[in-house]
Amino acid sequence: MSTTTDRVMRTADGLPLKLSLQKALARSRLRAALLVLPLLGFLVVAFLLPIGDMLFRSVDNRIVGSILPRTALAIQGWDADGTELPGEAVFEALVRDMQAAAKERTLGRAARRLNYEKPGMSSLFRKSGRRAKRITGPSWRDRLIGIDKRWADINVWRLIHRESGALTGSYFLSAVDLSLNDRAELVRQPEPRRIYLTLFGRTVWMSGLITVLCLLLAYPVAYLLATQPLRVSNLLMILVLLPFWTSLLVRTTSWIALLQTEGVLNDLLVFAGLISEDGRLQMIHNKFGTFVAMVHILLPFMILPLYSVMKTIPPSLMRAARSLGATPFTAFVRVYMPNTVSGVGAGCIMVFILSIGYYITPALVGGRTGTFISNFIAIHVSETLNWGLAAALGVLLLGLVLALYLLYDRIVGIDNMKLG
Amino acid sequence: MPPPPYASPTEKTWHYAYRVICAAIFVFLIGPIFVIVPLSFNELPYFTFTPEMLSLDPAGYSTKWYREFFTEDSWQQAVQNSLVIAVFATLISTFLGTLAALGLSRSEMPFKTGIMALLISPMIVPLIISATGMYFFYSRIGISSTHLGVIVAHAALGTPFVLITVTATLVGFDRSLTRAAASLGASPVQTFFRVTMPLILPGVVSGALFAFITSFDEVVVVLFVGSVEQRTIPWKMFSGIREEIRPTILAVATLLVGVSILLLTTLELLRRRGERLRGIAPR
Predict the structure, then answer these.
(1) Nearest Cβ partner of A357 from B30, B127, B234?
(2) Domain residues of chain B, as ranges?
(3) Last residue of a domain, one of A141, A164, A187
């Protein structure tokens, strides 16, 4: 044994101290990780995989390929940029696919998928699917075109060629009101179908305004709570926490009772003679209803972080400013407000994040003009069944939310998140 | 609190104006919640005050909407479903969330911030995205339209709250207490139940209450993952508001306000107890 190793400090059982410490550290690391692991595993299965599954649907394009497998294979060899219709083999493959799919009753799904890209495809497929049973060779092309002249349109084939791959970007294009035309060029959707950018815009500006309104209402209240003696502020705090703990649906129901045309507020205004019986105000099922109800619901999320920051600001700061000659207004704006910036940031990001993803309240009180992007995701999932488009809209919304979440982490730190 | 005697007239005016503004905001916050209480005793199926109610005529009031709530099977089924789902979801999220918080509060924990951000994400991701994702994935693994599916989904949504509240309690936790227990011969399990648990209990319970209310109040996920068999109180209220709006909903809402007052009181008592306990804990 060399002399250098003999100088190494050793623990009682003869191991070098450094090694022993490393081992102990690794053990305690493992122990900490083992405590976190069950939750992590649970969330992966119960939450993260479902989200991933949903997000993948935005590019998943296996519908056409799996329902029309022979066509998808045969059409690969065809030059889609040329001017020739595909060969006899492709027509034969399509007829055989349609015969099989009609038997399995899956043709409608493929037709609906292609119809998202080009209106009229659904009827073309349904008509041809019914009659394709009787087609036999050898002249497949002429027989199929005999059923419907649209099969002679090269753009129909270009579309099938484009959408028979495993992945697609077309849902994302639809989600931002774009589409590919027959020559695979990017074009804007026709005017009546151009709704999603407007909807995203509306979701963002309405959430922004809701955030600002929350800030305007929360700031004075939080200041009052922070400056009153503890006994008073604890009592007033209950007035903030009770709405926070009250069911979302209860609060939305209250606003319906208050705001509807036959509701409490309109009755009050009629009674006071401010409006006539016929002039009852429409305050719900429009933007106004969404604003009022959402500001009410999200207000505590702004008051609480503001309050927790304001509570730490020593009152002597304001007194010092006053004694140095500042007017109350100047002292407040120049000394007090800069100290509350972190609370303002935390509250605003939180309210904005919660607001842009809201579903329930806009669905119940938003009517047609006060709905958010979430409501359209729900419609595409449960009514139109255009899951790819729902997923693409979801990806865009989630991207926005995660960007804000990162910002929140930068500014506030996730560790500092507080509740109630 | 009156304004100080040296305040100028403008300051005095502002002082009272400020109070009026704050009072108005408090009315905005709390008023809508209490408006529904008298409305729920309406004799007629309207969502507004009838002339009889305003003249305090007893004939204008009735408890029939409460009777309807307590006798109708679909509402009673909803109450039962809500409670079963919320209780089991709370148990799962409290257990997993507390364990994870204990792990995350150790300084040796690797990738702490990243994991924390991941574990909090169910609170941040818009509910509609979580709900539709769960709708697709849970039907693939065969637990959609079952109580289990809704419980698992709600447990996932509730864990961030437990994690946050328990982590907050552990920030002020004195680690030398557990070392002292260990040096006096307690096993890690004994240390946890006899030393750690009593100290973090307020955090655990308030986290559990948050998880409970998250599940009890949740409707988007139930709408997507559940079916008629899993309809909960919020589910009934949501479809009630959309389809045929009856004052029964107001009666339920009033009862729910009572529940939230109860929860809030519990939480407040816990917070005071926690502060007292921490006050005597050595620093």
Answers:
(1) B127
(2) 9-60, 74-245
(3) A164
For domain B74-245, give the fold.
MetI-like fold (1.10.3720)
Domain match, A68 and A42 both: no
CA dihedral in degrees (A363, A364, A365, A370; nearest 10)? 10
Kindly state the tokens that stand for A115. Answer: 């119809």
Number of domains in chain A: 3
Q: CA A257, A259, A262 angle in degrees (round to 5)?
A: 70
**A39 with A81, same domain?**
no
Residue in A67, A76, A161 with CA at minimum distance from that of residue A118:
A161
Write the CATH number for A309: 1.10.3720.10
Any chain B CB within 8 A of the CB of A56?
A: no
Residue A171 lies in a domain: no
Separation CA B92–CA B155 (nearest Å): 6
My answer on whether A220 and A338 are in the same domain is: yes
What's the pLDDT score for residue B278? 63
* A292 and A414 assigned to the same domain: yes
| Residue ranges making up the domain that contains A159 | 62-164
In a domain, A338, yes or no: yes
| A383: DSSP letter | T
Does residue A180 lie in a domain region? no
Interface of A with B in 24-43 (CB under 8 A): 25, 28-29, 31-36, 38-40, 42-43
Domain boundary pick from A57, A73, A88 = A57
Closest CA to B149 of A398, A36, A45: A45
> Which stretches of A105-246 are DSSP H helices?
107-117, 121-131, 140-147, 154-162, 170-175, 196-227, 230-245
Tokens 């109070």: give the residue. Answer: B19
- Chain B contacts in chain A segment 214-253 (CB below 8 A): 217, 220-221, 224, 228, 236, 238-243, 245-253
Confidence of residue B17 (pLDDT cuts 50, 70, 90): very high
Asked if B253 has any chain A CB less than 8 Å from its own CB, the reply is yes
This model of the complex carries an ipTM of 0.87
Band the pLDDT of A416: cuts 50, 70, 90: low
* Residue contact B99–A39, C-beta within 8 A: yes
Whether residue A52 is found in the same domain as residue A71? no
Q: Which of A171, A66, A175, A391 is nearest to B137 (CA)?
A: A391
How confident is the model at residue A10, as a pLDDT? 81
CB-nearest to A238 from B100, B216, B264 is B264
Tell me whether residues B237 and A249 touch, CB distance under 8 A: yes
Does residue A184 lie in a domain region?
Answer: no
Angle, CA A169 vertex, CA A166 and CA A174 arms, to 5°: 130
- Please answer whether residues A200 and A396 qualify as being in contact, where contact means their C-beta atoms are separated by less than 8 angstroms: yes
B1 and A419 within 8 Å at the Cβ level: the answer is no
Query: Is any Cβ of chain A less than 8 angstroms from the Cβ of B121?
Result: yes
In this complex, is the C-beta atom of A274 within 8 Å of any C-beta atom belonging to chain B?
no
Q: Considering CB atoms only, which of A53, A254, A397 is closest to B32?
A: A254
Q: CA Rg, chain B, in Å? A: 24
Compute the distance between CA of residue A227 and CA of residue A233 in angstroms, rounded to an integer.
Answer: 8
- Residues A348 and A253 both lie in one domain: yes
Quote the minimal CA–CA distance from A342 to chain B in Å: 19
A351 touches chain B (CB under 8 A): no
pLDDT digits (tens, 9 = 90+) for A146-197: 788 888 888 888 888 888 878 888 888 888 888 877 777 788 877 777 889 9
- In this structure, the answer to whether residues A361 and A255 fall within a common structural domain is yes
Half-sphere exposure of A130 (CA within 13 A, CB side): 7
A138: cis peptide before it, omega within 30°? Answer: yes
